[in-house]
Amino acid sequence: MAFELFPRADESLTVKPPLSQGVGYAVVVGIGLVIALGMVFVTRILKKTVGEDNEKTEMFMTANRSVRTGLTASAVISSWLWSTAMLGSSLVGYTSGAAGPFWFAAGCSPMIVFFALLGISCKRKIPEAHTLLEIIRIRYGTTAHIVYMFLCLVNNIIACANMLLGASAAITAMTGMNIIAAIFLLPVGVALYTFVGGIKATFLTDYMHTFIILIILCYFSVKAWTVPEIGSIGNLYELVKNATEKNPIAGNQNGTYLTMTSKNGILFGILHLCANFGLVIMDTSFFIKAFSASPRAVVPGYIIGGIAYFAIPWAIGTLASSVVLGLESDPIFPTYPRRMTSTEISGGLILPYFAITIAGKGGAIGITLITFMAVTSTLSAQVIAVSSIISFDIYRTYINRAATDRDVIKWSHYGVIFFAIFAAAFSTMLHYVGVDLGWTLYMLGVLTCPGIFPTVFAILWRRQNALAAIVSPLLGMVTGIAVWLGSAHGLYGAVTIKTTGETLPCVYGTVASAFSPIIYSVILSFWKPQNFDWADFRNEKLAFEVVDQGHVITTAELEANDHQSQDQLKRWGRIAAYWSIATFLGHWILWPLPMHASKYIFGKSFYAAWLIIAIIWLWGTLFVAGFYPLIDGRKQILAVFKAVFSKTGAKTAAESSNASSVLEREQEPKTTTGVLVTKDL
C-alpha cells in the first residue's frame, strides 16, 4: 500500500491522547446539540421574518431555489471539505512527497467546476426537479430509476463510511474517546438540525462550519512558523530534505519529498480524479444544492467554490506532511523516539500529530473541532440526499403517488433518522473487519465510478437509450470489481483487506469502473439511438408549491419569457463548459505534467514559493467561504435583523426581501421555478 513504504516500529505502540475523553464527548455531543438548537432558533426566525417555512417541501428540500452565489460557493467548498480531505491530503503528502497534496487537490477541483455545467443544464431542462433520480425516471423509466437509486445509495454509503472512519480515528487519537462511540455520536447533531431545517439548515451550517475550519487552518498556517525547531520556510526545507535523504520515498525522483516526479503521486492522482468524478456526479446532494441555487448563482457558485477549494488540500497537506517528515525524529514530535507506524499513517494521523507538534493541546483541540465540523457538515449533505431519495424517489413514486406536501416532509424526516443510524452501523462494521481511512480512500472509486458517464450522457446527450443507461453502469461496476480483485490476486497472490487496498489494484479497478461504461453505453446507444426531446422533461410537474414571493406567473407569461430565459441559461452553460475545460487543463495538464516529466527537484527558493502561494490561496479561500456570503447576502441579513429588533417585525423584512427578490427576478432567467404549482403526481 502507498502508505506502507517504510519499515515501522512495534505496531502496538500508541501515543497518549493529549485531551481527555470528556473533551471528546463535549465536542461531539455538546457542540452538536448546541448547533442543532441554534438551527431550530434560526429556522423559526427565518420563518417569522422572511417567510422561509421548512414545513413546506420546496423549502425543506430546495430552499425555494433561491440561494445566492456567495452561499452556494461556500456550500460547494463545504461539500468537499471532508475530514478526509485534510487527513487524506496529509497522508498522501507523507507517503508520496509534495506531489501527493497537489494531486489530491487536482483530483477535486475539475469535477466541481464541471458540475456547474451539469447543474445549469438541469436548471434549463428540468427546473422543477428535486433529485437526479427524478431526471432518470422521467427519461428512462422505472428500471433505470431503480438501478440509479442503487448506484446513488452506494455512493452515499461509501462516502459516509469514509468520513466517519477518518473522523472517528482522529477524534479518538486526540481525546481517547471510544471509537465506536464517536462513530455513533457524530451523526446525532447532524440528524437533529437536518431534521428541523432541511437543505437551508445544511447551507447555513455548511457556512458556519466551513468558516470555523478555515480560520483554524489559517491559524495553523501561521503558527507553524513560530515553532523554534522550524523557524522559517528555508529551515523547513532543510529539515525535509535531510529527512528524506535518510528515509527516501520509493518511486520518487532520487527518493526525495521535494519533487512532482512521483510514481505513487501520479497513480494516486489518476485514482483520485476518477473516484471524485464519481463522488460528485453520483452524489444527489450536489444536485440538490444546484437545484437550490438561483439560476444566476449556479455557475459562478460552483466555479468560484471549486477553484477556491483547491487550496485546502494543497496548502494543508503540503505544510502538515512537511512538518511531520521534518520533525519526526525530533523530541517535540508525539511519537519520538520512534517513527509513525503504518497503522497511524493509514488511520490519517499525520495532520493530528502535526497540530500537536506545533500547538500542543491547543492544536489537539483545533484538530478535534475541525474534524467534528468537517464530518458533520458533509454528513448533513449526505443525510439530506438520502432523505430526498427515500421521500421523493421511493415513497412519492412507488408507495403513495398522491402524497401531499405534509406526507413527503414526514418521510423526509424518517429518511434523516434512518440514514444517520444506518451510516453509523455500516461504518462500525467496516471498522471491525479491519477497514480504515486509507483503505476506503483508495478503493472507493471502484464503487462510485460506474455511473459517471451514463449519468452525464443522460443530462447532456439525447441519443443514449434506456438499455444503455441501465446496462452500462452495471457492467461497469462488474468490470471494475473484477479488475480490482483480479489485480490484487494477480499482483499479491491473495484477496485480502491489505492487498485490495494496495495502490495498483485500486487504480486499475477505478479506471476500469469509470471508463468501461463509455464503451458499453456508446455501443448500445448507436445500436438503437433514442433522440430524446428535452422538452419532454417539462411534461411532468414535480414541484408541490413554489411561490415567488406571492407572485403567480401565468402560462402566457412563461411562454413569452421562455425564449429569452433559454438563451440566458445556454449562455451560462457555455461559460461553465469553458471554465470546466480550462480548470482541467490547468490543474491536471499544463501545471503538473511538465513538472512530473522534467524530474525537477525543488530548490529552496522554489519550495518557498510553492508553499507561500498555497498558503496565500488558502487565505483567499477563507475570504470566499467566510466573508463573500455575508457581502452577497447582506440585504437579507439586514432585513432579518431589522425584523428581529424593530416593532414592524416580519412585515419590514418581508417587504425588504420582496424588493430584493423583484430586483433578482428582473436580472434572472424566468423559469418555471417562479410558478405556483399545486399538482400531485
Automatic annotation (TrEMBL):
One of its GO terms (cellular component) is plasma membrane. GO terms for molecular function: spermidine transmembrane transporter activity; urea transmembrane transporter activity. Keywords: Membrane, Transmembrane, Transmembrane helix, Transport. It comes from Tothia fuscella. The chain crosses the membrane at residues 23-46, 66-82, 102-122, 143-165, 171-196, 266-288, 300-327, 364-390, 411-433, 439-460, 467-487, 507-527, 575-594, 606-628. Belongs to the sodium:solute symporter (SSF) (TC 2.A.21) family. Its main location: membrane. This is Urea active transporter. It holds the Pfam family SSF. The keyword Membrane applies. InterPro entries: DUR (IPR031155), Na/Glc_symporter_sf (IPR038377), Na/solute_symporter (IPR001734). It is found in: Membrane. It is a multi-pass membrane protein.
